[in-house]
Amino acid sequence: MTLRETVLEGGSDDRPWLEIYADKIRDIAQNLAHRKRCVGLHLAYGADDETPAAKEAVRIFFLSLRDHLTAILARGLPSEIAEELATDALVRIEGATLMTAVFDESDAMERAIQAAILDATTASR
Fold it and tell me: Where exactly are the transmembrane stretches of this chain (predicted)?
């Protein structure tokens, strides 16, 4: 799975940043829930110092994904908070992907989506 497959890029988006963020979180989560796995996370567990190219590719994938979310959040929040919220959102979504893959449970993913959006909404006040 590539970053392009995970984050559907559109053109210029003039909507409020929180609306864009909520849509991106939903897009990423739905993509992972549909696949019932995250290949990047799977590779992360297998990549180590003996496979430096794979380790770096996985690192770049997740860093790019976090940076993409951070950039959206930074439109309305301080950069440090934006990065923290982006990181937390990815952790939640990846954890929920585990529940989807193992138990075919979609409730955890919906809670992860709602929690990520609520965190951003709360931080913006």
Answer: none
The per-residue pLDDT for range 8-52, each reduced to its tens digit, is 555 568 899 999 999 999 999 998 887 755 555 555 556 677 878
Contacts of 83 (CB under 8 A, 6+ apart): 66, 70, 73
Within 10 angstroms of residue 100's Cβ, the number of other Cβ atoms is: 20
Place of tokens 């990520």: 116
| Radius of gyration over every alpha carbon of the chain, rounded to an integer in angstroms | 15
CB 29 within 8 A of CB 94: no
Global pTM value? 0.82
Q: How far apart are CA 96 and CA 110, in angstroms?
A: 8
Residue 64 pLDDT exceeds 90:
yes
- Which amino acid makes up residue 98? L
- Distance separating alpha carbons of residues 77 and 59, to the nearest angstrom: 25
Cα separation of 74 and 111, whole Å?
23
Look at residue 63 and give its three-state secondary structure. helix
DSSP 65-100: HHHHHHHHHTTTS-HHHHHHHHHHHHHHHHHHHHHH
